[in-house]
Automatic annotation (TrEMBL):
Pfam families: Beta-lactamase. Residues 47-335 form the Beta-lactamase-related domain. It comes from Labilibaculum antarcticum. This is Peptidase.
Length: 442
């Protein structure tokens, strides 16, 4: 996922004002009520876990793991965690460095001589998203082939074809391609599969019980399907694991993710020096980690998204608190949920949301349908409908259902975007990240 150019997708971080940590009371009853409201309004399906000093202090699972068979989510439900996988991959790379099997300054032409700028790109630049290698998941045709298995040769050819977006180490820009290539480097270095390396160097040593490289979803193994809400929850296609690999091919649970965070920051996986490499942030990016501020505490973690799954985890070293969220269906903003949970844990104020609906028929939506372009940004937004739900899709982006809020007004809470249509003038205004962007219907 490409953060800087995504209009309908945003990477979610926790940002609040600077107030000290003075936990005095953890109101679990209020937090339970918060999740009850989300569930009753079809805003969230998933699980969360919080640990303090290495012990789980709160878990919650809501919604359905399998909508078609009415299977409720539980503490043991397993979710695909998407880009959180990058934290695991970074650990494996740095373990290889500690064992003198890899050098962070080694250029990648040794493994991928056909990649643009291969002789200028070092392993450390793949880790920190400073390689310039184009992010293949940004390509508009990605969704036409992501469910089919790919060989290493095929994936390298796809990444090679994407070329370079900027000179290596001149800036940072998120690219899944970096961590797919790191996966192949690990496999060539250890002569083992990524799945085997994950189990051998992380899962077994710290006692994770529900973390592994995913295959086809197996609901009999407590693996959940993923969904998008379009008037009702609709099952989403499955990305084949051979495509994201170490960039996003891990299945896990919130409890396992908090255990992973505690082990990572507790010195069980890496040396202090290696952990500092992961934590060192330049232009917003660490190595498999991001900084996550919450009040005056600074945490480290990552977010993830794949198919209809979304996830987040963070660890706050000063307070020894770890938090993880995994979802198989989101119809609001995960960031708001994270803020609510952490606010409860830190005994800070938060509100239980009130949801209102503005009902439209399928015929009501016809006047909004079409292709919208703007002179301000190089992005087309196509609006379609699914029943009585309006759908918006930006160039090279997944489609999002829009929630009607008033006459001619819609929103997408997942990404904090609002849309205001003027059918008479054939215009649409997108409000996002403080910007007001005018689009005209073709």
């Amino acid at each position: 996922m490409k953060i800087t150019q995504a209009i309908l997708i945003t990477f979610l971080f926790l940002t609040l004002s600077q107030i000290g940590f003075t936990q005095t009371h953890f109101d679990k009853v209020k937090l339970d009520e918060y999740f009850k409201v989300l569930e009753e309004n079809n805003k969230f399906m998933g699980s969360i876990a919080v640990s303090k000093n290495g012990e789980i202090i709160y878990t919650k699972s809501i919604g359905l793991a399998d909508v078609e068979n009415n299977v409720k989510a539980s503490e043991n439900t397993k979710y695909k965690i998407g880009s959180i996988s990058k934290s695991f991959t970074a650990v494996l790379v740095l373990k290889a460095v500690e064992e003198k099997k890899l050098d962070l300054n080694q250029t990648i032409d040794k493994w991928f001589p056909t990649i643009t700028n291969a002789k200028k790109i070092a392993v450390k630049q793949l880790l920190s998203h400073r390689s310039g290698i184009h992010n293949f998941t940004n390509d508009s045709d990605y969704v036409t082939w992501n469910t089919q298995p790919k060989t290493e040769k095929e994936m390298v050819e796809i990444i090679e074809k994407g070329g370079s977006d900027f000179d290596p180490d001149s800036k940072a820009e998120y690219s899944n391609s970096n961590f797919v290539l790191l996966t192949y480097i690990l496999e060539k270095t250890f002569i083992k599969s990524y799945s085997e390396l994950l189990q051998e160097h992380i899962v077994k040593p710290i006692g994770l019980t529900n973390t592994y490289v995913f295959g086809k979803i197996n609901t009999s193994n407590n693996e959940c399907k993923s969904y998008r809400f379009v008037g009702s929850w609709k099952e989403q296609p499955e990305t084949d694991f051979t495509i994201p690999l170490g960039a996003g091919a891990i299945t896990s649970t919130p409890s396992d993710l908090t255990k992973f965070a505690n082990a990572l920051f507790g010195g069980q996986l890496l040396t202090t020096e290696s952990l500092e490499i992961m934590k060192t942030v330049q232009e917003g990016y660490g190595s498999g980690l991001f900084q996550i501020p919450f009040y005056d505490s600074v945490g480290f973690g990552h977010t993830g998204g794949i198919d209809g799954f979304s996830s987040a985890y963070s660890h706050f070293p000063d307070d020894n608190i770890s938090y993880a969220l995994t979802s198989n269906g989101i119809n609001t903003n995960n960031n708001d949920i994270s803020i609510a949970v952490l606010s409860a844990v830190y005994d800070k104020p938060y509100e239980i949301p009130v949801f209102t609906t503005y009902n439209l028929t399928s015929e009501d939506l016809d006047k909004y349908l079409g292709v919208y372009t703007s002179n301000e940004i190089p992005l087309k937004i196509i609006t379609t409908k699914d029943g009585n739900t309006l759908i918006a899709q930006g160039t090279g982006q997944p489609a999002f259902p829009l929630e009607a809020t008033d006459k001619d007004k819609f929103k997408v809470d997942q990404v904090g975007a609002k849309f205001e249509f003027n059918p008479t003038e054939k215009t649409m205004i997108l409000f996002h990240d403080g910007r007001r962007i005018k689009f005209t219907k073709e």
